[in-house]
Each structure stands twice: as C-alpha cells, then as structure tokens.
Amino acid sequence: MAIREKVEQLLTPDEQLSSIYELNLGYLQKKGIKGLVFDVENTLLAPWEKNPSIKCVDWLKSIQGYGFKVCLLSNDRNVERVTAFAKLFNVPAMHSALKPFTWSLSKAIAEMLVLKPAEVAVIGDTLLTDILPGNWLSAHTILVDPIAEHQDPMFDWLTRRTGKALAKVITRKR
Q1: For residue range 96-148, what is the model confidence (pLDDT) as tens digits?
Q2: The domain containing residue 164 runs over which residues?
Q3: pLDDT band with cut points at 50, 70 and 90 for residue 174
Q4: Could you give the CA distance from residue 156 to residue 63 in angstroms, rounded to a whole number?
Q5: What is the number of domains present in the chain?
Q6: Which of 4-18, 23-37, 109-123, 132-146 has the least mean pLDDT?
Q7: Between the CA of residue 51 and those of 81, 83, 87, 144, what are the distances in Å?
Q8: Model-level pTM?
Q9: Contacts of the segment 23-29: beta carbons below 8 A, 24+ positions apart
Q10: Is the pLDDT of residue 12 over 50?
Q11: In the structure, how many helices (H) and strands (E) does the chain have?
Q12: What's the whole-number mean pLDDT along residues 81-95?
C-alpha cells in the first residue's frame, strides 16, 4: 500500500456525525461493538465547561442501558476535571493521554474495557488525536463535529487545522 493511501486510510473515519447524539447504538451493536471510547474535550464538553449538560448526562446514562462498556480518554491534564466527569457515570477514564500516540488508547481498550480493538468504537472530534489512533488500532472510528469550533485551546485548534489540511491533500484528485 502506498504511503498516501495508508495516510488516507488512517485519517478517514468509519462514520461522520454532527454530534454524539446522532450515534446509532443499535447499529453499533449489530456490528459487534461492545465498548465506546469517548474523547472528552469538544466531544462531550466544551473546553471551558467543567460539568456536562443535562442532555449529555441523560444521554450517557442511556448508553449504559444498551450494555456498552464506556471509557473516557482525554488529553486534558486537569485530573480533577476528567475524573469528576467519569465519576458522574461510574466509568473509567484516562487523562493526559498524549493522543495521537496509541499507547493510552491501547491501554484503555485492553485494561479498562477488557475488549479487542475491533469490538470498540472510538468517538472524537479531531482527525489527528481521535480518528488516527483509533484507525491505527483497527477500531471503529466516529468523527463528530466539535462542540465549540472557535473556542478551542491553541493546541487543539492547531491539530484540528492540520488534520483538515492533511485530509484535503490526501483526498485531492490528481
């Protein structure tokens, strides 16, 4: 496989949705998905928020009714923010994940969810820090629109722009 094709494969999500609320949980179950790994920043919470909305709380609790194992994986270094969010739902979480490196996602899948990557969907808002590591491990990947596109911290803004630029280059027709 050529390098361009491999990069394109790694940066292409299996699904693209406008928000987490569009996830089709029945479809994921039929595909054999048993676990969901969520990015926190700009996927579940806006960068400046400390607490999720009531809609988010209700939705995440409903997921557990489907029997999915859930884990939160965040690049946020704020331990209290990530762990407090995880405690609301009694789910495991990892902060300072250093995505796009795959070691934290591998650990979350194997140790926190006790599943294989093919049994997991990785849900996040950026190509480089969410979709790339998920695809690298052969998980099902779902890209959602960021909650607050123009309110990202500088690093997130930069990775989002870089990912979009790479996606344009690799999908451009020759």
Answers
A1: 888 888 999 999 999 999 999 999 999 999 998 999 999 999 999 999 999 88
A2: 3-171
A3: very low
A4: 27
A5: 1
A6: 4-18
A7: 8, 11, 11, 20
A8: 0.85
A9: 23/123, 23/142, 25/63, 25/66, 25/68, 28/68, 28/121, 28/140, 29/66, 29/67, 29/68
A10: yes
A11: 7, 6
A12: 87
User: What distance in Å separates the CA atoms of residue 144 and residue 165, rounded to the nearest whole number?
Assistant: 17
Q: Identify the CATH number of the domain in which residue 103 sits.
A: 3.40.50.1000
Concatenating the DSSP letter of every residue in 15-41 gives EEESSGGG--HHHHHHTT--EEEEE-B
Q: pLDDT-based confidence at 149, cuts 50/70/90?
A: low
Alpha carbon separation from 24 to 32, 36, 142, 153 (Å, rounded): 13, 12, 11, 30
- State the Cα–Cα distance between residues 34 and 2, nearest whole angstrom: 32
pLDDT at 30: 96
Distance CA 172, CA 162 (A): 15
- Residue whose C-alpha is closest to residue 109's, from 20, 21, 38: 38
- CA 89/CA 116 separation, integer angstroms: 22
Q: Smallest Cα–Cα separation from 117: which of 1, 14, 3?
A: 14
141: which 2 tokens? 């990947």
Helix axes 154-171, 3-10, angle to 10 degrees: 130
